[in-house]
Specification:
Elements lengths: L3 H10 L7 H17 L2 H17 L7 H6 L9 H13 L5 H14 L4 H11 L17 H14 L3 H7 L12 H13 L3 H15 L6 H13 L3 H11 L6 H11 L6 H16 L3 H11 L17 E4 L2 E4 L4 H9 L5 H14 L5 H10 L11 H12 L4 H17 L3 H17 L3 H8 L9 H17 L3 H17 L3 H17 L3 H14 L3 H14 L1
Antiparallel strand pairs: 1-2
Helix pairs in contact: 1-3, 2-3, 2-25, 3-5, 5-6, 5-7, 7-8, 8-9, 10-11, 10-12, 12-13, 12-14, 14-15, 15-16, 17-18, 17-19, 20-21, 21-22, 22-23, 22-24, 23-24, 24-25, 25-26, 26-27, 26-28, 27-28
């Protein structure tokens, strides 16, 4: 039976999981455990996280239930969840209108006015709204994102000049801005004769979003821009490149509407989704907007995107790589990809095409990238420390540990959480194999988030679980390994998933949880019928009988 302290830890460790099915499944499980024990404080904490996981993990229609059940507490932690809820309403027609408004009413009663969320909903429903409000201090949106949603609304109601005037170009950035604003303003810039601004907006925003399925709605604007400015070949290329992506219903609708400008078959798909939104909203605003988009005239001035804006691409495994514009950018990408030799090789190959005879610093960096001796070192200090750690592993593990710890700090200093996690894993394994598993566990149990790649998150969880098992904390080990298995499944790494399931079966046998052991072993055999998995399954069924 889980203790209260273990449940607190299980709830909070999900903050470090990648958004998506794995995180949702872990939170649903811990919420059921909390409910079974009747722990009120735990129940609230778990449901706040579960609502947020639903909203950010692709299941927004499920968020209302956990959110509504913990509103009475008035916990300030809930305030940012309302921002996600308003956006989920726009993105998915399964999120009910009446329930959304009721929950926002209650949120405003508990906290303070939420004009930003009211604007999002009003704009989607086709109503005029006042964009001159003061942004709430506790919003989850940064200042630039707040300006971005105002620009979107002004464009939807036809106040193009006001939208362009509101745009601010400075060094303030976040994960979406200023790129989302630039994507929205490409066509207004072109129609106003600001062709250089339009081209630069396309280049900057597409470079930021072209690898992100969650930004399919913004990428639809790039397709529309190409189609309306005489770049039909480029538009078709973008439709082909991003056409298989999965996104929210709203993003998918936007994509099909833009794609219909160059391939008519997409029009019916866009209108079909729009009808679902209209049925939920009780009006025909979305269908009318899509029909107006399809019927609109092209921009009056043709825009030459230039070859640099749609550079050559190359398939590397499951990734489609778009090359940067300069040799300096190519060298930097290659130097930061030492853990992915194939990717680094492709970057250097493109470097050689553009600059076959480098000189000076670029020559030194190219020699270093090819493994030849040179006086130059990595320009990225974190990558340099990580590489030195890897090179020192066999002959001097303690020296490697020093470099790995240095790499952790350097990566964290520039918010590169994915590579910080990789460096932390290296340091953890060095400590574990040099006879200090307690120090290894202390190092991996840091609160730093794990960003970027679900598989890195899974490796962190797996390592944490194995260390807990080595130190005798079997309940904690089981929980970590279960979450690792779910994360490996989200990352579609079936080999690692099979190994994790076999480890779980072995652990459950040690804990006399024979039913769980049989289930885990059965899954391990299904994924990879190795001798180990088959033996664990036979033993589990024998002991269960």
């Amino acid at each position: 039976m889980d203790t209260e302290e273990q449940l607190w830890r299980q709830i909070r460790v999900t903050d470090r999981m990648w958004e998506g099915p794995g995180q949702i499944a872990a939170l649903e499980k811990v919420t059921r455990r909390v409910d079974a024990l009747g722990l009120i404080a735990h129940r609230h904490e778990a449901r706040v996280r579960l609502a947020t996981a639903y909203l950010l993990g692709g299941e927004p229609a499920k968020a209302l239930e956990p959110l509504s059940r913990c509103l009475d507490s008035g916990d300030p932690e809930l305030r940012p969840v309302f921002d996600y809820l308003a956006e989920a309403f726009v993105e998915d027609p399964r999120v009910p209108l009446a329930d959304t408004l009721a929950v926002l009413d209650e949120g405003e009663r508990l906290f303070w006015p939420m004009p930003d969320n009211r604007l999002i909903i009003a704009s989607h429903l086709g109503a005029e709204a006042d964009v001159r409000y003061e942004a709430p201090a506790e919003s989850s949106r940064c200042d630039r994102c707040d300006i971005g949603l105002r620009i979107d609304h002004l464009l939807r109601v036809g106040r193009v000049d006001d939208a362009v005037e509101l745009f601010v170009s400075d060094d303030d950035r976040c994960s979406r801005q200023p790129h989302a604003m630039l994507a929205a303003l490409m066509l207004p810039f072109a129609r106003a004769g600001r062709l250089d601004d339009a081209v630069e907006a396309f280049r900057a925003s597409y470079s930021a979003f072209w690898t992100k399925p969650a930004e399919l709605g913004s990428l639809a604007r790039h397709i529309e821009f190409c189609a309306r400015t005489g770049n039909h070949a480029a538009a078709r290329k973008l439709v082909d490149r991003h056409g298989g992506w999965r996104s929210t219903p709203f993003g998918t609708m936007e994509f099909h509407a833009a794609a219909a400008l160059v391939t008519e078959s997409h029009a019916s798909l866009a209108l079909e989704i729009a009808a679902r939104f209209d049925a939920r909203n009780g009006n025909s605003v979305q269908s009318e907007r899509i029909r107006a988009l399809l019927a609109a005239d092209p921009a009056p001035i043709a825009v030459d995107l230039g070859s640099a804006l749609l550079p050559g691409t190359k398939q590397i495994g499951s990734r489609l790589v778009i090359y940067p514009k300069t040799v300096e950018e190519l060298a930097s990408l290659a130097e930061r990809s030492e853990d992915d030799p194939e990717f680094a090789a492709i970057m250097w190959e493109r470097f050689d095409e553009l600059l076959p005879n480098p000189e000076g610093e670029l020559l030194a960096r190219r020699l270093a990238g090819s493994g030849e001796p040179a006086g130059a070192t990595d320009r990225d200090p974190g990558a340099r420390a990580f590489r030195l750690a890897a090179l020192s592993l066999e002959e001097d593990p303690l020296r490697a540990l020093t470099f790995a710890r240095e790499a952790i700090d350097l990566f964290l200093a520039r918010f590169d959480y994915t590579n910080a996690a990789r460096a932390r894993l290296m340091a953890v394994w060095i400590l574990a194999f040099t006879g200090d598993p307690k120090a290894a566990l202390d190092l991996i149990d840091k609160p730093d988030p794990v960003g970027g790649i679900p598989e890195v998150q899974a490796e962190v969880l797996y390592t944490h679980g194995k260390l807990s098992q080595a130190l005798g904390d079997l309940d904690e080990a089981a929980f970590r390994l279960l979450m690792a298995a779910e994360s490996f499944e989200s990352a579609e790494n079936t080999d690692a998933l099979g190994w994790a399931r076999a480890d779980l079966a072995e652990l459950f046998l040690t804990m006399d949880r024979f039913e769980d052991a049989a289930d885990a072993a059965e899954e391990a055999v299904r994924l990879a019928p190795t001798a180990r998995a088959l033996a664990l399954r036979d033993r589990a069924y024998l002991l269960r009988a």
